[in-house]
Amino acid sequence: MKKIWIHKKVYSLDMPLDDIEKDLETELRDYFKTEIGVSVKMVGDNVVEVLFHRTMNVDAHEDTILEQDTWLLTGEGHDNFVPAYSSAGSFAHFPNMVYYIDKTDFEDAYKRNAEFYSGCKIKKVTVTEWSTMLILRVEFEQ
Fold it and tell me: How confident is the model at residue 88 (pLDDT cuts 50, 70, 90)?
């Protein structure tokens, strides 16, 4: 049974995908105080994609990910949750500043967390960030 870890929760991919979408939308609305649409789809026997439709435009970069997007994916900070593995490092934060994190570091940390929390072996994690959309792609081991 394949499971995916998103926003501090583990979801079985045997359950209806629209139930995962609804639960995630509720969790995200509670945390971010805004609507974020979610689409979950299987794109093969061993690949799941989760699309987050944002209402804000972000300045997407190829090699980095917006720190707030990492919170969206991991749930870091929601109900004081802290993931087991972090990619953020420890650095000072200043009000009204935008922070980006190295995308490869985040994908590696996300993969470790996903395996830790779900118990599933993951081959690859890819995050694609567009101005109004964030895509998490998880490829499971055979």
Answer: low
Element containing residue 25 per DSSP (H, E): helix 17-32
DSSP-based helix, strand, coil % in the chain, nearest 5: 30, 30, 40
Q: What is the pLDDT of residues 32-84, one digit of tens each?
A: 999 999 999 999 999 999 999 987 777 888 899 988 899 999 999 899 999 99
The 3-state DSSP class for residue 50 equals strand
Residue 91: which of 108, 111, 105 has the closest Cα? 105
Provide the token pair at 134: 């964030």
Residues 135 and 114: their CA atoms lie apart, in Å, by: 16
Give the contacts of 79 (CB within 8 A, at least 6 positions apart): 8
Specify the DSSP class assigned to residue 107.
Answer: H
